[in-house]
Amino acid sequence: MINVSGLTKYYGVNCAVDNLTFNAKKGEILGFLGPNGAGKTTTMRILTGYMPPTSGKASVGGFDVIDQSLEVRKLVGYLPETVPLYQDMRVFDYLKFMAELRHVSDVEEKVDIVLEQVGMVERSESFISKLSKGMRQRVGLAQALIHQPEVLILDEPTIGLDPAQIIEVRKLIQEIGKEKTVLLSTHILSEAQQVCDRVMIINKGHIVAEDTPEHLQTRMVGSRRVTVRIAGETTPAIAIINKIPGILSVKLTDNDAIQFENPTDKDLRPLVAKALIKARFDLLELSSESVNLEDIFLQLTREEPQALSPSEVKDEFLAEEPAGINKKIKKEGK
Ligand SMILES: Nc1ncnc2c1ncn2[C@@H]1O[C@H](COP(=O)(O)OP(=O)(O)O)[C@@H](O)[C@H]1O
Ligand SMILES: [Mg+2]
To answer: What is the Cα–Cα distance from 28 to 2, expressed in whole angstroms?
Structure first.
């Protein structure tokens, strides 16, 4: 459903998205996991046809996001980082308005369907300004679903929510995601692991890893890559290194160095050195570097936000935004 190839975006001289290639299938929730500034939002804006890439191609459902952006917008539901909500509108009227913008037929019926989908039937007559953040996020999801799109692009859908709301919104996404293609961005590792079928890790505009949530768990343990150079035959040396407990994936590189991974928290180099010297190898190099992923994981939030106290929840629920905030709604086709 989503096909991206060599996607690149520069803001002036700064490269925000650098040669991204990936795809997402129907029925799949693909996670876009990366720290702030990684390029998640930029990629999503390009995919929704709101901004052209500098180079590269992207298509949704076979439609090119630049040349056929109107078709793409029909197929895609988009929950932006900050949802443009009219504070002084009631939930029902806002969704009706959004449906009309999208030229949806049987507007009121469609609004009822999405209200049901996001569990907001009882709040349909509430003013948006009186809703809690979690409720507003549901309204945001409802507007993304209003035209019953096949593809959902959700930009950090749980940001700013408290833990109970996070759990609800995640459940909702998983439910909706069963028959759709979902691309979801997050900077929370555990969120990507819980919600997604597959996770891409993006950092500084690059995809640095792509894996299932289960595999990510193992790769998350800050692995170190060790390079060994010896004079002479490498095959017997590899056999010796392979016998040392804790060492993984021993291999020969293109330029005749031996490399292995050490996922343990112990420096295994002294053991390797002793074993090789005992076997009368001349040791030329023994160096260790942390695998790239470790640094990126350090920047990702591993913990969920703290629960709000009861009084905070009440404030949050009754929160009224200062006038003027989020008053503008992006018109379709702009
Ligand atoms: N409108 C913009 N103009 C200039 N630079 C931008 C703009 N939007 C984002 N950037 C830069 O592009 C990079 C990627 O940003 P973004 O896509 O928002 O990342 P993320 O959503 O992963 O936090 C960052 O370095 C950010 O500062
Ligand atoms: Mg972002």
So the answer is: 11
- Beta strands 198-203 and 181-186, pairing class: unpaired
What residue spans define the domains of the chain?
A: 2-218, 223-290
Tell me the CA–centroid distance for residue 51 and ligand 1, in Å.
13
Whether 58 and 73 have beta carbons less than 8 Å apart is answered as: no
Given a cut of 50, the residues of the chain with pLDDT beneath it are 313-334
List the structure tokens of 221: 């343990």
Relative to the CA of 187, which ligand 1 atom is closest? 22
Residue 325, pLDDT score: 36
Beta bridge partners of 187: none
* Alpha carbons 110 and 102: distance in angstroms, whole number: 12
Look at residues 37, 60, 21 and name the one whose alpha carbon lies nearest to residue 153. Answer: 60
Give the per-residue pLDDT at 203: 87
* Mutate which of 8, 9, 11, 153 for ligand 1 pocket (most atoms within 8 A of beta carbon): 11
- pLDDT tens sequence across 122-176: 999 999 999 988 889 899 999 999 999 999 999 999 987 888 888 888 998 999 8
Residue whose CA is closest, atom 16 of ligand 1? 39
CA dist 186 and 279 (Å) reads 50
What pLDDT shows up at residue 298?
A: 66
**Domain 2-218's class?**
alpha beta
Predicted local distance difference test score (pLDDT) of residue 246: 85
pLDDT at residue 309, rounded to an integer: 53
Residues in CB range of 49: below 8 A, 6 or more apart: 65, 66, 69, 70, 72, 73, 76
Q: Hey, what CATH topology would domain 223-290 get?
A: Alpha-Beta Plaits (3.30.70)
pLDDT digits (tens, 9 = 90+) for 204-235: 898 888 888 877 766 665 567 899 999 989 99
What phi, psi does 149 have (nearest 5°)? -75, 155
Centre of ligand 2 to C-alpha 159, Å, is 10
Long-range contacts formed by 103-107: CB under 8 A, 24+ apart: 104/146, 104/147
Cα 89 to averaged position of ligand 2 atoms, centre (Å): 27
